[in-house]
Write a structure and sequence with these properties.
By secondary structure, the protein is mainly α. It is built from 4 helices and no strands. The longest helix has 12 residues. It is extended.
Length: about 90
């Protein structure tokens, strides 16, 4: 590929990757057009809930759920992008 036909970013970086220009989220379209993922309610089946609690990420950002009901409420809130990014009025 000739130099002038290559994308600008790849001209300045020999092995260009997105981590060279971003250290966070890369959105592929506006948040209003994004959809959250599907919650897998079978995820906890057969798991020791104490182990799930011990592996809870970001304990400083959100408290460790005390039970499965709190766990699912937190997960559901995380994947609901409209609420998460305050695009709708919260109840």
């Amino acid at each position: 590929m000739k130099q002038q036909n290559r994308p600008r970013a790849s001209r300045t970086y020999k092995n260009f990757t997105l981590k060279e220009v971003s250290d966070g989220y890369i959105f592929t379209k506006p948040i209003r057009e994004q959809q959250g993922c599907t919650v897998d309610y079978e995820y906890l089946k057969g798991k020791n809930f104490e182990e799930v609690q011990n592996n809870w990420p970001d304990k400083d950002w959100s408290p460790i759920p005390k039970n499965e009901e709190e766990y699912w409420k937190e997960i559901e809130g995380y994947v609901d992008l409209r609420k998460r990014y305050l695009m709708e009025q919260l109840p």
